[in-house]
Amino acid sequence: VPQGDRREYDWHYRACFAPVARTVFLIVHDRTLAEDITQEALYRMLRHWRTVSTYERPDAWVRGVAIRIAVREVQRASARRTKERLAQPASATTPYDSMPDPDVARAVATLAPMQRAAVVLFYWEDRPVSEIARTLEVSESTVKQHLFRARHRLAEVLGEEVTDDVS
Amino acid sequence: MSLDDRIRAGLEANAARFLPEGEVRLERVHARLRRRRALQSAAVAASLAAAFVIIMVVGSPRLPADREEPLPQPAPTVPTPSPGVQVLPDSTWSRTLTRADADRAGIPKGRPILRDFGADGRLSLSIGFQGDAFSLQVLDDDGVAEVGDSGDVTYDAPGRLIATSDSTGCFGCEYLLTWEVRGDRLVLGSAPGADLSRVEAFVMLGAWRRSE
Fold this sequence. Notes:
The structure holds 2 protein chains of 2 kinds.
Chain A: H1 3-28, H2 31-47, H3 49-52, H4 58-87, H5 102-109, H6 113-124, H7 129-136, H8 140-158
Helix pairs in contact in A: 1-2, 1-4, 1-6, 2-4, 4-6, 5-8, 6-8, 7-8
Chain B: H1 3-16, H2 22-58, E1 91-98, H3 99-104, H4 112-115, E2 122-130, E3 133-139, E4 145-155, E5 161-165, E6 174-182, E7 185-190, H5 198-204, E8 206-210
């Protein structure tokens, strides 16, 4: 990689790593996995740097790649857990206990993978529905449906009242 | 506090606790690309050397008199096939392993791979090659495929297959394998210096039957 390109890539890497890793962490709830996924997305950016560097927002490209990997990982992990639950009893402690707000983490963990991603992008990153749809490669109405169902589920788990309007 | 504010506050608190160590991983990303480029360069160098030898032995091919320039050739894609190096065509292969196979391979009890065996004591695997990518899948009891590993495929100068994992379980891990297609069977072997773990060897090495 030419020095100029490398400097520019490194700048993007440093700007992207922490925010993307935090978003991924809220989806996968595992620090190492969140960093691994972010590293993978940034490696893919380096591999395709000649193309990605021409994009208006390379950070959006990386975020999209990382979030889609995270969703796949959650899907795989939930399939694995189902098998493991059948094989052995669940452990008494969960990774959520060490979090500042374990109730919200536990409630988010009950959501389907795409719902998790939609909730994190909507509530934590404050992204509009149109951008979430582009990131998750689904339609806007699908995103709205994910958010609607997720909100009802979160209210149920958190013991909160759900209103129709998002505030 | 409304439900939405509760969710926002909770996510913010949980994210704030997480301080990612990105700087440590920056050099790993560059190193991984350097490794990949080095492997590709080795394959290209081998191709050029082989082409040079062919030209020296056979002589320079003469163009027909009515054609001034050779027709443009399509751009090479990865994996780069060279005159002496064959590459696996796009294909899918499958195999079934049993618990007895695992015992014979000396897989220690408690390894996660053993939990993937179905109630019938069998583990159905499928490996697909598509361009420069591979995907290893595990089929559950209902025949539903779950990706066990995936990543990039390149070939070194002697034509051995280098599978680089993209899976979060082992980012950047490389498997150096010999391969041979015999009829409807693909035989994967361990190349010298491949250093596969017992489980990796158990899953990957041996005969696979063509399924597509």
